[in-house]
Amino acid sequence: MLSFRTVDPQQRRRIRRDARSGSEDGTDQLRTVGVTTVTVSYYGDGDEGRAELPQFQDSADNPIDDSSLPDDLDVRKLGDLLEGFAPEGYEDGEGGHGTITFDVQTGKIRVEHNWYEIVSNPADPREI
């Protein structure tokens, strides 16, 4: 399943507010150091889910090290906010995995999700 959503203005304000602990807007802080996308990978099954820490990229898709980010940017909180866009129940039963990408320039979020499935194929009957 692939979905594409635009962050509504209220969610955008929440991401900006919650991603910072200082006075500057969180997305402005990311732009200042050249971040154009923030990516969070997640996976889960058996009633447990986990999201990785956010990965930051520049306009050429080169990784940006966390040490280059502003000290007052709450990376863990930003990751938690983005994980909130994962489909509900991705950690239940067989679960699923995916990637959430936040485009800092446009404010759009792309959710790429895959559900795990158990498939059963019957064997041909045989007599012994």
Describe the largest sheet: 7 strands, antiparallel
Task: Kindly give the count of domains.
Answer: 1
**Secondary-structure class:** alpha+beta
Strand content: 25-35%
What does the radius of gyration come to? 18 Å
Approximate shape? elongated
Order of helices and strands: EHHEEEEHEE
Please tag this protein with its features:
single chain, 128 residues, alpha+beta, 7 strands
Report on this model:
There is one protein chain. The chain has 128 residues and is α+β, with helices and mostly antiparallel strands. The chain has one domain. It is 20% helix and 30% strand. It is built from three helices and seven strands, in the order βααββββαββ. The chain has helices at residues 9-18, 26-32, 75-83; strands spanning 2-6, 37-45, 48-51, 55-57, 63-64, 96-103, 108-115. Strands 1, 2, 3, 4, 5, 6 and 7 form a seven-stranded antiparallel β-sheet that branches. A hairpin with a 4-residue loop joins strand 6 (96-103) and strand 7. The longest helix is centred in the N-terminal third of the chain and has 10 residues, at 9-18. It is elongated. The termini are far apart. The model is unreliable at 1-7 and 19-24 (pLDDT under 50).
